[in-house]
């Protein structure tokens, strides 16, 4: 029998992971109006494109393999490093959408008992995905700051 509070927490976490898909939709309208220099500028850390690329790489190279090990599915092939600044923004957003949807599909397919399994660094699935969600928030905040500075 499942715990209603735990079920609610897992549902809320899944909603947070799904938020990135909503964010991608709104990003398309914003980034399509920006100059290439505004999304590839790198004086203060990674560019906007590189920040998005980091989300893609994390989802594909860390999150999906960890979740797939739980369900014993074959891990997807990891993407090699890319020069994100050379890739058109629409391609980046499409890749990010595809990677996150794969994560959501993997999370949705987890059994209740999988959530308590250790996936990395002695943490369970819930803690692991919470870190992913927190990293999403930090990265999106950084991107918003970069976009704001590019207009200032």
Helix content bin: 55-70%
CATH H-level superfamily: dinb family like domain
Give the H and E element order. Answer: HHHHEEH
Give the number of domains: 1
Q: Mind describing the biggest β-sheet?
A: 2 strands, antiparallel
What is the number of beta strands? 2
Stretches where pLDDT is under 50 for at least 5 consecutive residues are none
- Mean pLDDT across the residues is 86
Structural class given helices, strands, pairing? mainly alpha
Based on the coordinates given, report the CATH architecture.
Up-down Bundle
Spatial ordering of strands, largest sheet: 1-2
Level-1 CATH class name = Mainly Alpha
Beta-strand content bin: under 5%
Number of H- or I-type helical stretches: 5
Distance between the termini: 54 Å
Shape: elongated
Explain this structure to me?
With 152 residues, the chain is mostly helical. It has one domain: dinb family like domain (Four Helix Bundle (Hemerythrin (Met), subunit A)), CATH 1.20.120.450. The chain has five helices and two strands. The protein has helices at 4-31, 36-40, 48-71, 89-108, 125-151; strands at residues 118-120, 123-124. It has a two-stranded antiparallel sheet with strand order 1-2. β1 and β2 form a beta hairpin. α3 runs antiparallel to α5 (125-151). The model has no long low-confidence stretch (mean pLDDT 86).
